[in-house]
Amino acid sequence: MLRVAVVGGGPSGSCAAEVLAKAGIETWIFERKLDNAKPCGGAIPLCMVEEFDLPEEIIDRKVRNMRMISPSNREVEINLDRDDEYIGMCRREVMDSFLRNRAADLGATLVNGLVTKIDTGTDRKGPYKLHYSDYSAGERTGEAKTLEVDLIIGADGANSRVAKAMDAGDYNVAIAFQERIKLPSEEMAYYESLAEMYVGTDVSPDFYAWVFPKYDHVAVGTGTMQENQSLIKGLQVGIRERAKNRLLKGEVIKVEAHPIPEHPRPRRVVGGMALVGDAAGYVTKSSGEGIYFAAKSGRMCAEQIVATSNGGKSVPSERDLKVYLRKWDRKYGATYKVLEILQNIFYRNDAAREAFVEMCDDKDVQRLTFDSYLYKRVVMMNPWQQLKLTALTLGAVLRGNALAPGRYKAVPSAVRSEEEAQQILAEGGIRGGLKAGREAAAASEEESRQAVISR
């Protein structure tokens, strides 16, 4: 019987292990941190809920409104028209645990362990021996063990050990930084079914910042590309400053940071080893979405293994596994390329960001955007929509140059008067978390501006 090790217990690894276990293939899934809470916005598209049979109890919030906030604080609200449509907001530790345990219930062996070394055999063609520390006993020092398998699925994130073992090649990584902030009931009620997305050099020179609602708190974070990652703490100060009137009396309950791939690795299948999810580099530009694509890639890779192993009776070849890559690139390659182009156009400076937010006020743009995101399908525009979008883009870019601010201001509170908000701020800002003040924010703003100018 075919033996497969899945290294990494996030959405990509868990969904791969589930498919393999259902087919009766001997499957091991390795995860060191069973309570891992990856710093990510945690947004999932509607189609993922049905496609991956996700129960409602793992979804903290059903967001039906998205507020886009430009550098000059122009606010554009995007509303979903239908009651049955929403963006799911999840805590990664809850969702990941559910997916992992479901795979285990179906027959996969869940190992609370850290893979430390992989022997790949002659020419990396196997058989493969995993050396790992088993922490199942709860001791601080894991028990050294080994496991020999026929195939390995690398689902172990941006710093993938499997990728190193197969010499998959390097890729640039972005960095995400996030604070989970508990808010008073008044402020939390504002985020009941609303998420906010901020753009501006103060919050990121090449990406965006977010305030996403979770079960009893909001996730407040930002991201930036590798070349600017030294600015990340200052950029987090930037989003805290811009959103501070809506985060009044906030208390940081968790601080998180994590690398995120910027593009696919040069090699994603070598011998009997295949990469999925972040390990493969399947995070989109522009939106930074990775959860759905991680789960989908894990499932597609595992389905290819099941199909070409005759249900686990034979060992698929490298050529067999690469069919998964061809299917993946054919299905999603255009999506990644379009989103990369959009990021290069609309995130390059504050004038372009102003234009981006203005365009999001158009109903046709909103519908096209949400259909593409919610259902993961390419929505074709008719000639009138194409002409209209071109005119919108040109006009918005021209106006964006005039609207781009010389300095950034905090957005007003949505639930309190300006006088009350200022009184609360005078008593103190957000408690805990990042130790930085207004001076750090100002320094970050200037550094970020210089980074953008030099690009």
Let me know the average pLDDT: 88
Tally the beta strands.
Answer: 19
Spatial arrangement of strands, main beta sheet: 6-5-14-15-16-13-17
CATH class placement of the largest domain = Alpha Beta
Domain count, please report it: 2
Measured by DSSP, the beta-strand proportion falls in: 15-25%
CATH architecture assignment name of the largest domain? 3-Layer(bba) Sandwich
The CATH superfamily of the largest domain is known as FAD/NAD(P)-binding domain
Task: Report how far the terminal alpha carbons are from each other.
Answer: 54 Å
Q: Which structural traits does this protein have?
A:
FAD/NAD(P)-binding domain, 14 helices, six-stranded mixed sheet, D-Amino Acid Oxidase, Chain A, domain 2, 455 residues, 19 strands, 2 domains, alpha/beta, single chain, seven-stranded mixed sheet, globular
Textual characterization of the structure:
The structure is a single chain. With 455 residues, the protein is α/β, with parallel strands linked by helices. The protein folds into two domains: 196 residues, FAD/NAD(P)-binding domain (3-Layer(bba) Sandwich); 128 residues, 2-Layer Sandwich (D-Amino Acid Oxidase, Chain A, domain 2). 38% of the residues lie in helices and 23% in strands. It is built from 14 helices and 19 strands. The protein has a seven-stranded mixed beta sheet. The chain has a six-stranded mixed beta sheet with strand order 8-2-1-12-19-18. Strands 3-7-4 form a three-stranded antiparallel beta sheet. Helix 6 crosses helix 14 and helix 8 runs antiparallel to helix 9. The longest helix is centred in the last third of the chain and has 29 residues. The C terminus is likely disordered.
